[in-house]
Amino acid sequence: MKQVKVAILGASGAVGQELLSILAERNFPVSELKVLGSTRSAGKKIRFRNKDYKVEQAKPDSFAGMDLVLSSAGGSVSRELAPHAVKAGAVVVDNTSAFRMDPEVPLVIPEINAEDIHKHKGIIANPNCSTIIMLVPLFPLHRLARIRRIVVATYQSASGAGARAMQELQAQSKQVLDGKKPTVEVFPHQIAFNLFSHNSAIGKEGFCEEETKMMNETRKIFHDQSIRVVATTVRVPVFRAHSEALFVEFEHDVSVAAAREALSQAPGVSLVDEPERNYFPMPLDASGKDDVLAGRIRIDPSIEHGLALFVSGDQLRKGAALNAVQIAEVLFPA
Amino acid sequence: MKQVKVAILGASGAVGQELLSILAERNFPVSELKVLGSTRSAGKKIRFRNKDYKVEQAKPDSFAGMDLVLSSAGGSVSRELAPHAVKAGAVVVDNTSAFRMDPEVPLVIPEINAEDIHKHKGIIANPNCSTIIMLVPLFPLHRLARIRRIVVATYQSASGAGARAMQELQAQSKQVLDGKKPTVEVFPHQIAFNLFSHNSAIGKEGFCEEETKMMNETRKIFHDQSIRVVATTVRVPVFRAHSEALFVEFEHDVSVAAAREALSQAPGVSLVDEPERNYFPMPLDASGKDDVLAGRIRIDPSIEHGLALFVSGDQLRKGAALNAVQIAEVLFPA
Q: Quick one: pLDDT at residue A334?
């Protein structure tokens, strides 16, 4: 088995922590580990496979000798450091939005377009979490009858904004229950017992960055520039799994039975669709799971060839860290 | 000013309580008040305008001499007792789903179809809360360019399931924060830090009752059988305001400016649409307000003549009690 020298960039963040536990869980052949972070987190201790590692400050010369860099330290850090890592001979699997729409950089969900991994020129981009959670269950349906349009409304957890945002949801909830005024610091608005439009910048057409990512990344991952997507992305007071209401229009009819069959066999998807007991995908059930849960499948009577469904997936796992490790597994096969 | 003898059916419930405070707030000319409820709530004391009233058990002969019955005691109670109230000479404004789709019964949102009130034969139905919160802001847009299709995903608060459901959200949230296993009693699934498909019965086409109501009631209220609606309804851990992501297709183009202008002038709507500071409708802001908040207005680039928006409205006020009192105000003008 090939042994891999791995650097984690952003090791102390929510995704970084999840990357380390998934590498351990899946017995990824890490022969050497370097944990890198900002000035703020340099010196912190990080545990991996019963051993402590000290976070080093990430610098352009941090990557000498590394085979693989898993980066989740934010777009500007990736933009600055990824080229240095590539120059040093490493392959970078980047969890940020920095390179996703770069035509030279493959954007990959292994269940969908694993073959794109091999076209890389040093950097492979991990899609946005909401895109991954949407497309893993939609791909088997796309193969059945070609998707023409997706309307999606999201229910996104605090984890998508990092560990501090999860702590803020917890702290604010306690404050509200205690009758105190909640402290608003990480998110722009109170998240406890509230919800709000996704806190990313709004572009001139009125869509926030999170929505634009879902709309653009879908076409790149599916290699189909004709798919139309419209998204409304919303933060909800949930800790770590994203949910999405999907309304999909196909080129041809897809029956509920055919959709169920396709989803029950698709890699990375668990069918959760029990109308008798009103049991469908929920973020609580998706948390900590590798699979995206998909269900509430029904014919959309308001349009031709339409299907509605509901999905939930762990934002930190399949939405980020797991997908990155799956890409690394293709790069460095056992 | 006409003096009105009012009976409240379901007075101790969440909507009943809100009905009483709205009648007081708006100086509705109540000359006599009767508070009615189930065996369970009979004997309870209810306060109205600094006076205590004892809840009487609701029976077929409870309505003698009453002018107006405001009913929010559940569909089966309304189905049984409303005809007796009508026989006794009262007009019933019914908050349940019992008579909404009855062709003999007007289904009214006063900002939209107040003229239907006068066609009543003793019963006037108050629409479903999610329908009201969706249609108040959509009606001024429908008048601009005729709505052809609505795709809606809801974010519904605990209040829609009554006072006990709101208490359950509070109790479960405390349990989760204390590291305890939450007690699931009122809702079928944990609501704290979770969300799930609306807990109403699923029909044979896969839609739950809440969704079917939104789809059918829209056509009746707009007097337009050709409007197509598809809904996914979801419960979220929010106390008392519902939010909705709306994707609307019109017969003709509607510009963002025209939509903003129409919404800023529409009765019952507050425009909350500030992309510069990422400030849009939120349930926390909508709670306790009469107006439905509408914003995040943008052109849907995935379809011709499409517009996307986001709305939040107080489920107990405009979604239920306020709408019923507004109907009563038309029935008994000052």
A: 80
Q: Is B158 on the interface with A (CB under 8 A)?
A: no
Burial environment of residue B330 by CB neighbours within 10 A (0 to 12, 13 to 18, 19 or more): middle
Do A138 and A33 share a structural domain? no
Is there a single domain that holds both residue A279 and residue A325?
no
Q: What is the pLDDT of residue B2?
A: 79
pLDDT tens column, A116-155: 999 999 999 999 999 999 999 999 999 999 999 999 999 9
Q: What range defines the domain where residue B104 resides?
A: 4-127+320-331
Q: Give the pTM.
A: 0.97
pLDDT on residue B100: 98
| Distance between first and last Cα of chain B | 5
Note which residues in 226-245 of chain A have CB less than 8 A from chain B: 228-230, 232, 234, 236-239, 243, 245
| Facing residue for A256 by CB, picked from B151, B206, B308 | B206
| Residue in chain A nearest B189 by alpha carbon | A279
The reply to whether A51 and A141 lie within a common domain is no
Strands A91-94 and A68-71: parallel
Give the angle subtended at the CA of A331 by the CAs of A325 and A109, to the nearest 5°: 55
Q: Is the pLDDT of residue A1 over 70?
A: no
Residue of chain A whose alpha carbon sits nearest to that of B178: A174
CATH code for position B229: 3.30.360.10
Between the CA atoms of B102, B106, B107 and B111, what dihedral angle is there, to the nearest 10 degrees?
170
| pLDDT tens string A226-244 | 999 999 999 999 999 999 9
Nearest residue in A to B190, CA atom: A284
Q: Is B209 on the interface with A (CB under 8 A)?
A: no
| CATH code of the domain covering residue B91 | 3.40.50.720
Judgement on whether residues A195 and A285 belong to the same structural domain of the protein: yes
ipTM: 0.96
Instruction: Say how many C-beta atoms besides its own lie within 10 A of residue B113's C-beta.
Output: 18
Any bridge partners for residue A151, and if so which? A230, A247
Same-domain pairing of A283 and A162: yes
Pair B100, B227 in one domain:
no
Residues B325, B307 share a domain? no
Count structural domains, chain A: 2
